[in-house]
Amino acid sequence: xxxxxxxxxxxxxxxxxxxxxxxxxxxxxxxxxxxxxxxxxxxxxxxxxxxxxxxxxxxxxxxxxxxxxxxxxxxxxxxxxxxxxxxxxxxxxxxxxxxxxxxxxxxxxxxxxxxxxxxxxxxxxxxxxxxxxxxxxxxxxxxxxxxxxxxxxxxxxxxxxxxxxxxxxxxxxxxxxxxxxxxxxxxxxxxxxxxxxxxxxxxxxxxxxxxxxxxxxxxxxxxxxxxxxxxxxxxxxxxxxxxxxxxxxxxxxxxxxxxxxxxxxxxxxxxxxxxxxxxxxxxxxxxxxxxxxxxxxx
Length: 298
What we know:
- There is one protein chain.
- By secondary structure, the protein is of the alpha+beta class.
- It has two domains: about 60-120; about 125-275, Thrombin, subunit H, CATH 2.40.10.340.
- It is built from three helices and twelve strands; from the N terminus they run ααββββββββββββα.
- It has helices at about 1-35, 40-120, 280-295; strands at about 120-130, 140-145, 155-160, 160-170, 175-180, 185-190, 195-200, 210-215, 225, 240-245, 255-260, 270-275.
- The strands form two sheets. The protein has a six-stranded antiparallel barrel with strand order 1-2-5-4-3-12.
- Strand 10 (about 240-245) and strand 11 form a beta hairpin.
- The radius of gyration is 48 Å and the shape is rod-shaped.
- The N and C termini lie far apart (about 160 Å).
- The relative contact order is 0.10.
C-alpha cells in the first residue's frame, strides 16, 4: 500500500509540474510578445544565445570539416578512376599536335616548290623522297614518281632552294636520283655574275666543287652558281648554290671554288622533277607550229 501511494504521489507531482511548465511558457510567450527588445525576457534570451554561440561555431566547423573530407575522398577516388583516361587523352592530344605540325611543315615545303615552279615557269611533277642510299660514298635518293608519271633518265631534279640532282634510273612508279654532291655527278655550270664557266662535281665529303675555271676567271665568295645548259644534262639557268671559298692556286691553268649545296640528302623530303622550263617549251612549241605551217604551205 505504501508503494502504491508513493507512485500515485509521484505521478500527481509530474502532472503538476507539467501544468506549471505549460502555464509558465504561455506567460513568458505573452510577456515576450508584449515587451520591447529591451525587456527582461529579451535580455535573458540574448545572454543564453551568447553563451551557446561557441558551441554552435564548433558544430558548424566540425560539419564543414566532415563535408570537406568527404569531398576530398570523393575527388581522390574520381582522380584515381579517371587517371588512365586522362593519360590516354593527353597522349592523343600530343599525337594530334605532332601530326598537325607535320602537315604544316609539309604544306610549307610544297608551297615553296610551287612558288619556285611558278616563278621559273617550270613544267614538272612533284615527288616525295621514299628512300636514301645507305652507302657513305653514294649520294642518291629514291622518289615515288616513275616512267608512268613521265619521269625519265637525265631529267633535272630540284628542291625549293634550287637544283639538287638528276634522274639516272627509272621504274614504272619510282625513280632514282643522283644528287649533285655524289662523287659521280657532274653539271656544266657558270658563275652568274661574271659568266665564268666550269663543271660542278660532288665529292666523298659531300662538298660541291666548281672546277675547270680559267685561272683569270672572276670568282668571289657569295657568287651564285647556276646551270649553263651546255651538254644538255641539266636545264639552263637553274640555281646550284653559292660560292663559299675560292682556291688561290698560283701558276695553274685552272682554278676551282667550293660551292655550298642547296640541300643535303638527309634533309630532302619533296622534290620537283623538271620536264622543261618556260622559254624552252615556248621555243619548242613555236618550232613545231612553224614546221606545221611550212608543211601546209608546201
